[in-house]
User: What shape does this take?
Amino acid sequence: MLRPRKETSLYYPVYELAGDGAGMSMLEARLRISENVLADYALGRVDDSVALEELHTAIEKVMRALVPKSERFGWPELREQCHSLGLLPEPKMYALLTPDWGLSDVHAHAPDEVLATLARHRNRAKHEPQSAADGWLRTHWECVASIIETLAGRLGSAHDVQPISHDAHHGAD
Assistant: This one.
C-alpha cells in the first residue's frame, strides 16, 4: 500500500517515461518532471487539471520528437501520423499494459481514442478547471502513461521509423 511521505530518500517513477536511449537531454529532463507529477498524482497530491495538462504536454513532446516535420501538425494530425507510422501500441497489447486489463468494459478502447479523449478533457479543463474532476483521468491516467512510455521507448530508433500502409494498419484493428 502506498502512503504519502513529506520526504523520501529514494524515488522510483510510477512509469519510466524518460528512457536512457533517447539521446535528447532536454526532452529527457522534461519527461523526468512528468514522472514526478505522475507519482504525485498517483498519491493524490496533484489536482486532476494539473495532471491532464502534464500528460498532454508530455505526450505531445514525445510525438513531435518521433514524427518528422511535426511542427506543422495540429494535435489531430499528429495523432494520425503516430497511428500511420505504427508508433502507438496495438490495442490488444495496450489492454494488457493496464492494471485492470481484465475489465474489458473499462478499457475496451484503442490508444488513439484515449489520446483524443485526453485532448478533449484537457481543453475543457483549461476553461473550466473543475471539469477535470469528472473521474475520467482517475480511471485512465495509467492508460495515457503507458502510451507515453511506449512512445518514449521508440525515441532511440526514431530515425528508423517508416510509414506503414494505412490500409494494412486498419486491417489489424
Remarks:
- The two ends are 37 Å apart (CA to CA).
- Residues 48-66 form the longest helix (19 residues).
